[in-house]
Specification:
Layout: E1 3-6, H1 16-30, E2 43-48, H2 54-67, E3 72-77, H3 81-85, H4 89-102, E4 105-108, H5 111-119, E5 127-130, E6 154-160, H6 169-178, E7 184-190, E8 200-202, H7 207-215, E9 219-221, H8 231-238, E10 243-246, H9 251-255, E11 259-262, H10 268-277, H11 279-284, H12 291-310, H13 321-346
Helix pairs in contact: 1-12, 4-13
C-alpha cells in the first residue's frame, strides 16, 4: 500500500504542519511506502488547517474523486481553531463538513483536540485515531548537544512561527521585563508582535539551524496556552531540553515529567530554578515517540482502512453533488465571515 501526502510543502522555516508532514513524508519514502502521484497512490493523506489553500485542496480532491471515485482519503485535523485562536467557529464547521463528506478516516493530534472537536460538533467516524506529532529525527536529536553547565548562565529559548498574541507573547513580554538577566540569557526564534529589550530575537530559522539553537540551550519555554499538539515543544524535547509550558490544552500531556507547567507568568522564575537544581533528572524523563513510531502508527491506521476496503467491508466515500455543495457552502461562509471581520476591523472595529 502506497500513500501520497496532498500538501503544498514549503522549503525552509514554515508552520508546524509543514514541518511535521515533511518528516512523515521522509519516513514513508525511506520505508518505500510513499507515492509521488496522487492518482496512483492507494491512500491520500491531507491536512486541514486555517489556510486560504483549502479551496484549492477541495478542487484537487474533486478531480481525484472524479477520476478514481473509490480512492481512500484520510484527513489530519488541526484545532479546534475556535479555541486556539479565540475566534473562527466558521472555520471549524468548514473542517467538520469537509471531514464528514470527504474523509474516510481522521487523525487527531491529541486527546484534547479530539475531545474539543467533538464538543463543537465534529461527528465520530468509523475510522478515527489520535497520534501525536514527532519531528524529523535526523535533525531534532541530541547529537552534538552542548552539555549542561550548572555554573554558567542558564540558557533559555522560546520559538513561534506565528506572531499571534495568543501564542503567549504576554508571557514573553513579562519575562523580558522581569527576568534576572544577570543569571539567565534568553533567545526567541521566530515572528513576534513585540520588540524585546533583553531577550535576543532571531528571525525564523530552517530546521537544521533551529535544532542547533536548541542543542546550545538548556531549557525550552513555551507560552502558547491552547495547542492541538505543539511541534516546537516536541522538537525541543527531542533535542534534550526540559520544558516549561502552560497548564492548558495538550501541553501537560506532552511535557509529562520532563518539565513543569505554569498558570501565571510570575511562576516562571521559580520553575526555572527548580529545573536547574535537578536538571539531569528532568532530562532523563523525556519520553516521546520518534518519527519511526509515529510514522508506523500513521501507516498502520491507514492500512487498516485499506484492508477493510479490500475485504469489501467498507466503501470509500463518493463525492456527491450534495456533499460537494455542503462543503463549498461552509467554506464560502467561512471566507465571507473573514472578509466581513476584516472590513469591520479596518473601519473602527475591535482592537487588541
Amino acid at each position: 500500500m502506497k500513500v501520497h501526502i496532498l500538501y503544498p510543502f514549503k522549503e525552509g522555516p514554515w508552520g508546524g504542519a509543514n514541518q511535521f508532514l515533511g518528516g512523515l513524508k521522509n519516513f514513508l519514502i525511506l520505508n518505500k511506502k510513499h507515492c509521488e502521484s496522487q492518482y496512483q497512490a492507494d491512500i491520500i493523506l491531507f491536512n486541514l488547517n486555517p489556510s486560504a489553500l483549502l479551496l484549492l485542496l477541495l478542487s484537487k480532491i474533486k478531480k481525484i474523486k472524479k477520476k478514481y471515485p473509490k480512492k481512500i482519503l484520510v484527513v489530519r485535523i488541526d484545532g479546534p481553531v475556535f479555541l486556539v485562536r479565540g475566534k473562527g467557529l466558521a472555520i471549524d464547521r468548514a473542517f467538520f463538513n469537509f471531514t464528514k463528506n470527504l474523509a474516510d478516516g481522521v487523525v487527531y493530534q491529541s486527546h484534547w483536540s479530539k475531545k474539543n472537536c467533538f464538543n463543537l460538533g465534529m461527528e465520530e467516524k468509523e475510522f478515527q485515531t489520535t497520534i501525536v506529532n514527532a519531528p524529523d529525527f535526523a535533525i531534532f536529536n541530541r547529537s552534538g548537544r552542548k552539555s549542561w553547565q550548572a555554573d554558567s548562565k542558564i540558557r533559555l529559548i522560546a520559538t513561534s512561527w506565528s506572531a499571534n498574541w495568543k501564542k503567549g507573547f504576554d508571557v514573553y513580554q513579562w519575562l523580558d521585563q522581569n527576568l534576572d538577566f544577570a543569571r539567565y540569557e534568553m533567545t526567541f526564534v521566530g515572528n513576534t508582535p513585540i520588540t524585546f529589550k533583553n531577550i535576543q530575537h532571531i528571525s525564523p530559522l530552517p530546521s537544521q539551524e533551529l535544532a542547533r539553537k536548541f542543542k546550545n540551550s538548556d531549557i525550552f519555554i513555551t507560552a502558547s496556552r491552547l495547542e492541538a499538539c505543539s511541534n516546537s515543544l516536541i522538537e525541543a524535547l527531542h533535542c534534550g531540553l526540559p520544558v516549561i509550558g502552560p497548564n492548558h490544552s495538550s501541553n501537560p500531556d506532552i511535557i509529562g515529567r520532563a518539565g513543569e507547567v505554569f498558570n501565571h507568568a510570575q511562576e516562571l522564575p521559580e520553575l526555572i530554578k527548580k529545573i536547574a537544581q535537578s536538571y539531569e533528572e528532568y532530562q532523563a524523563r523525556i519520553n516521546l515517540p520518534s518519527m519511526e513510531g509515529v510514522g508506523k502508527a500513521y501507516y498502520d491506521f491507514m492500512y487498516s482502512i485499506y484492508e477493510t476496503v479490500q475485504r469489501g467491508e467498507y466503501v470509500p466515500k463518493r463525492l456527491t453533488w450534495t456533499g460537494y455543495f455542503r462543503v463549498m457552502w461552509s467554506l464560502w461562509l467561512w471566507k465571507g465571515h473573514e472578509r466581513l471581520t476584516g472590513m469591520l476591523n479596518r473601519f473602527g472595529g475591535k482592537k487588541r
